Amino acid sequence: MKYYTKENFDPANSVGFALYRARNLVLGEMDTVLKDLDITGQQMGVILSMSSNIASNPFELSKLLDIDTGLMTRMLDKLEKLGILARVRSVEDRRMVNLELTDKGHHVAAEIRMRAPEVLNKRLEGFSTEEFLEFRRLLAKFLGA
């Protein structure tokens, strides 16, 4: 079924616009609670992906977080400059660069894990348990999971 047509499409009331606004709201709120750590909500995704061993190189991170390689390189440069991660050449393939969190990076990841739930829980405060589970289910379905 087609929910949108050129006749009824109203960008301001579309699912895409709502998702875009929701993303920006959450990222802005994450930016605020992470400001003293000198990282952004977007950089948070890199740090948590690494600390959870979901991704360990720039390519994996780019693919997982759907971030183009140019932006990913700039983000990694900034995180490396902050002492949060280190680039390490692969022993098996010198062309490959792996990423490792530093001690500071592990500390920052732990701080994120304490702060991020507060931001998300505040956004979800009016949801019942059933609504929360349905929301997650529908998002997964929308994302094609």
Automatic annotation (TrEMBL):
Keywords: DNA-binding, Transcription, Transcription regulation. InterPro entries: HTH_MarR-typ, WH-like_DNA-bd_sf, WH_DNA-bd_sf. Residues 12-144 form the HTH marR-type domain. It holds the Pfam family MarR. GO terms for molecular function: DNA binding; DNA-binding transcription factor activity. PANTHER family: TRANSCRIPTIONAL REGULATOR, MARR, TRANSCRIPTIONAL REPRESSOR OF EMRAB OPERON. This is MarR family transcriptional regulator. It comes from Undibacterium terreum.
